[in-house]
Structures are given as structure tokens and as C-alpha cells.
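Both lines are quoted verbatim for reference:

——
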Amino acid sequence: MSTDFKKLTPREVRALAEANKLDTATGALCPDYVKASLLILPSTYADDFLRFASWNPEIFPVLEVIREKPVSSFLAPGANLCTALPHYRIFINGEVSEDVNEVKALWNIGSVGFLIGCAASADGLLLENGLSVRHVEEQKAMPLYETKLRTNPTGPFRGPVVVAMRPLSQTAVKEAYRLTESLELVQGAPLHIGTPSEIGIRSLETPDYGDAVRIAPDETPVFWSSPATMQAVLRFAKLPLAITETPGFPLVSDLRNDALPELFKKEKARV
């Protein structure tokens, strides 16, 4: 019997991933729930990355830091970071080594995991307010593009900003900006609206990561910053080992999107 991916709960998505039975882009599933990009580093580089994230908060809003055992206690309690995603990308000395289905053998006592707010988390809010989210409609990975914009460098980390794109009608652009402006824990407001060439994107038909989506003649490309920027940053950092999700396959958490505003208030109060 075929699986209706549109009706899956976050726990069911993760269970299918753990069983190696999920190839659908997780960024397009469970639109009402927060998605999180993954980064696993040797502990030697953890503090450098946290400083880098603090200098680039709109790109790398860190939602959870995980040490010792690779198990989430906040976003997806009990989920094993090494198996709860369908596809992982392994970097060795800055080069992509391979994409794999699990990374249990690569986690050790010195590993540190970071779960980072993902632009796909805003999909549910946009859909709820009647806006089109093309990659969800087409069940594709969100299209991602490298730009000529640059991150603020810290330690070994630096590189170009990667953006996520959603095509929207002219009347929907202002509403999308208003809706996402407060979601600072998952990328926030758009970084750029309109002409792709102004930020160094040559062709919307050939994204650097993810899948191309249909753009109607009356639609405008709207770009949000993306933690997929880490894919580019790791090429520059040339760390001996780093692990991310394969673009398009973030962790689906148990935290609903409507909890984000209150979570952000608490984070601001804590700081």
C-alpha cells in the first residue's frame, strides 16, 4: 500500500527515514512543523561555529546544541540525529565525500550536533494564509541558490550566502514579508525580492541545491536566507570532517510553527 506523505506526522516521517523508506524531500512535508538543518562537527570546531552563527544570526539561528549522545531533547525528543533524516552529506577536507542514509559510525564522544532554523519552517504559515508554496505543491526540495553576498567570517568559517526561493504573485509578496518578518528563529523576512542577477544568481532554472520549480509569468521570485549556506561554507573551511543533511532533507521536528513567536520571545528574554 502506498504512503500518503501529505498526512504523515513528524514522528512518522522520522520513522520512515530511520527505516530507509523515505526519499521525498522532507522540507515539503508536515508544513505546520518547524524544520531544522543539521550540522555535526568535531568538538574542536564547535565554539568557532557558535561564534560564526552569532555573527550571522539571520542565516544560522541555532535552535539546539547536542553533545555526547546524538539525541535531541528539545526539537524532536528522542530522535537520533544520525538516523532521523533520510539523507546525510559527509564533507572531508572541504569536499563532499558522499551522501548516505545514516551516520551512526561517524558520531563519537567528541562530536557536537547543531540543529539550525530552516526557511522551510515558514511554509505552513504561508499556506495557512492562502499563499502559494510551490515546492510543497510540487512535492520537491526547496530551490536553493548561491549568491554573491558573503557571510561575516569567524575562525575557519566563511563563504557565500545561499538563499531559498519561493515564487509569489505581486499581491502576495507584501503579505509573505509581513508573515515571515517575526520568524527570526527560522530565517525571518525575505533577504531579496525580484531580480535574481542583483544578488549574483544567473538562472532560476538551475538551482545549486534542491529542485527547480515552476514560476508563473505573473510571479516574482522571493529569496530567504538559508542554512544551506553551510554547504558552501564547509568548502572554504576544509575541516577534516563535517556532516550536514543533504539539501532538501532537513529534520522534521515536533515543534509546531505557531510556537515560534513565543519561543523567540523567551530567547530574547534569556539573552
The chain has seven helices and eleven strands. Residues 267-271 have pLDDT under 50 and may be disordered. The helical segments are 10-18, 46-55, 123-128, 134-137, 170-180, 229-237, 260-270.
